[in-house]
Amino acid sequence: MLNGTMKGLIERGAVRVTRLLYEIFILLVVLTYAILIFADPADQPFLTETFYRRIDYAMITFFAIEYSIRLWRTEDRKRFVIRNWFDLLAMIPLDVHFPLARFMRLVRLVRILHASPLLWSVVTSKQMRLIFLFMMLILAWSSAGIYVLELHHNDSINSFGDALWWAIVTMTTVGYGDVSPATDGGRIIAVFLMFTGIGLIGTFTANLANHWVGFFHGPDKEQARVNRVQDQLKTNALQWMYRIETLNDEEYQQLLKVMETLRPPKE
């Protein structure tokens, strides 16, 4: 029995390591692809049309292989195709000159996120969506405020992008110090962002940790709960069997009559 327990622990540990490596791989792919999508080709000579075309084809090939494997393993292929229409959309090859080429890269980015159970659970979580929405609203408001207040008073704020970068750095409490508000209104916004960032980043980190723990330890907890329910059912069954054995003839006949009344009528 001990060998079986050790074998089970080793197998679960191997599964966790494999899932962890897979999640890390998908995360790196997501970050790399996101950087390539939003990068400015004019500033990076290696970001040529040929490079983007190869990246797109590599992603489409990966999606096609993964989709084919899942389609082959499913029983109801028609239902599978209908339910996974977004996967087919992500596999549409468009030339880099096509106006929708960049939009299709965003579609593929979402598809990569969907390939990660952990990342997708974070993105689709109601709590995380509320946190993201609140963060986006605060960043948009503070960036617009800083841009209006600091535009002609701060040499470091020359565009809305500069204001947005400052707001992100301030909210995440990184605070490089390379950009500081020069107006009283800008300083008030900075203080608000600092205090708001402490709460939001803490809440975001706590929710992310909960998803992480639940993803890697959830199956063990579910199995433990199932085992507890099974043990309880066995205990209850033994107790009922013991009680039936201690009944006298009269009580036993009454029990049979009750069971007869509960039996559904024959058609």
UniProtKB/TrEMBL annotation:
Organism: Tumebacillus permanentifrigoris
Ion transport is among the record's keywords: yes
Keyword entries, A-Z: Ion channel, Ion transport, Membrane, Potassium, Potassium channel, Potassium transport, Transmembrane, Transmembrane helix, Transport
Domain of life: Bacteria
Protein name stated in the entry: Voltage-gated potassium channel
Family annotation (Pfam families): Ion_trans
InterPro entries: Ion_trans_dom, VG_K_chnl
GO cellular component terms listed in the entry, alphabetical order: voltage-gated potassium channel complex
Sequence intervals crossing the membrane: 20-39, 51-69, 130-149, 188-209
Keyword Transport set for record: yes
Major localization class: membrane
Record membrane topology: Multi-pass membrane protein
Domain Ion transport: 21-210
GO molecular function: voltage-gated potassium channel activity
Compartments where found: Membrane
Signal peptide bounds: none
GO biological process: action potential
